[in-house]
Design brief:
The chain has about 400 residues and is α/β, with parallel strands linked by helices. It is built from 13 helices and 15 strands. It is about 35% helix and about 25% strand. The strands form 3 sheets. Strands 1, 2, 3, 4, 5, 14 and 15 form a 7-stranded mixed beta sheet that branches. A 4-stranded parallel beta sheet has the order 6-7-8-9. A 4-stranded parallel beta sheet has the order 10-11-12-13. The longest helix has 17 residues. It binds zinc ion (ZN). Zinc ion binds next to loops.
Length: about 400
């Protein structure tokens, strides 16, 4: 048994504990979180004392490991429609380079304290990296086509890819890319696969203004982008409601839903989601939003709406690093009302719940194997992260 103590321990399932003591077994399983004056507290000589805070490993609720080779390839602040064109045009690379980039990205995430990842895949490219990783992955096998005639072919490929992950004992579900890239027929196909590939559902949502414009009036930059790819909109009836109103009712009913980005989501949409279902998580990838659209969502409003917020890094195509801590710093720099305890809950337990991994990860509850991070150089009195705040993995 190892005993770790710090200025503050963030067990997450309960309030932070000043000078608490974490009892950990040799393999990293949490045995107990003790108050400093607990009758079961060990002899002081047995306690490893750390300056700063301890928290569970981070959960990255949204990444695209297979785009890791695109670090620095796409210019910043181009807006989503141009970004999509760049991804499509520049994502090809030789297999060896891709593989090396994925291995490095996986190692970077582990070093940065990330314990589990919700990872979007369009291919089985990430399979080997995930099999040999210490990180636990849920693979979201993403399908897209706005052309109803292509729904079956696209779904079949999704089933093939998800099957490969499943055969390798990796968790995988089939998910829609985004409202603007999935037809009603394809949504129905995705829902039909839920019993075979059970698990949470994710969907990119309202990342740019032109996404809602597409569903309200059938016009805008996104529609033009897809016309450029040959998508036929002649039979498309804009339904005069938001992208989310189009997508949400078509998602499978019995699985958690993770809405990704939500940069332009309005307050009434949080109420709409709440009225429809209670298992929806709102994932922010603030660094990526800043990279692509040079804006971040109104997270104060998310907080007011009591949304279940989790945090993702998105891919290295739209981020300079895969670090949840850097995401949290950016969030707090823009929205100081997010204090450290709140940020850490979003970065740990909320993400673990969203990915159905909270039995094992996301808090220091006894019996879990959540990873242990040492958070250094933080203003603990005021719950503020500094530019220089860093983490070191203990377990
Ligand atoms: Zn994404």
């Amino acid at each position: 048994m190892r005993f770790l103590s710090a200025d503050v321990i963030f067990p997450i399932y309960t309030e932070p504990i000043s000078n608490g003591i974490l009892a950990v077994s040799a393999n990293g399983t949490i045995n107990d979180v003790l108050l400093p004056d607990d009758v079961n507290a060990p002899e002081p000589s047995r306690v490893e004392r750390l300056e700063g805070a301890l928290c569970p490993g981070f959960i990255n609720a949204h990444c695209h490991l297979e785009l890791s080779h695109m670090k620095g390839v796409i210019a910043e602040n181009t807006g989503l429609p141009k970004f999509i064109i760049e991804i499509v045009n520049k994502r090809d690379e030789n297999a060896e380079m891709k593989m090396e980039a994925m291995r490095l990205a996986d190692a970077e995430m582990w070093r940065n304290g990330i314990q589990a990842v919700g990872d979007i895949c369009n291919t089985a490219d990430t399979l080997e990296t995930k099999q040999s990783s210490r990180i636990k992955y849920h693979s979201f096998v993403e399908v897209f086509s706005f052309d109803p005639a292509k729904a079956n072919v696209v779904l079949k490929e999704g089933i093939r890819v998800a099957g490969l992950y499943q055969q390798a004992d990796l968790r995988a579900s089939i998910v829609p890319h985004a409202p603007y890239s999935v037809s009603e027929q394809l949504f129905a196909g995705i829902a039909s696969q839920q019993s075979r590939f059970s698990g949470p559902i994710s969907i990119h949502n309202q990342e740019t203004e032109s996404e809602d414009e597409m569903f309200v009036s059938g016009t805008g930059a996104l529609v033009e982008t897809f016309k450029g790819f040959g998508v036929d909109f002649t039979n498309f009836n804009p339904q005069k409601r938001s992208a989310l109103h189009y997508a949400l009712p078509q998602l499978p009913k019995n699985e958690n839903v993770i809405l990704i980005h939500n940069t332009c989501s309005k307050p009434e949409e949080f109420d709409y989601v709440d009225s429809l279902r209670k298992d929806v998580f709102w994932c922010t990838c603030a660094q990526a939003n800043k990279y692509i659209e040079n804006r971040i969502p109104n997270l104060s409003m998310w907080l007011e709406k009591q949304a279940k917020i989790c945090v993702g890094t998105d891919s290295l195509a739209s981020n300079h690093q895969l670090s949840i801590l850097e995401e949290l710093k950016l969030i707090q720099a823009n929205y100081p009302e997010f204090k450290l305890a709140q940020l850490l809950k979003m970065a740990t337990l909320n993400g673990a719940k969203a990915l159905n991994m909270d039995k094992e990860k996301g808090s220091f509850l006894k019996g879990k194997l959540p990873g242990i991070l040492w958070l250094k150089n933080v203003n603990l009195n005021e719950g503020i992260l500094r530019e220089t705040s860093s983490i070191q993995r203990i377990v």
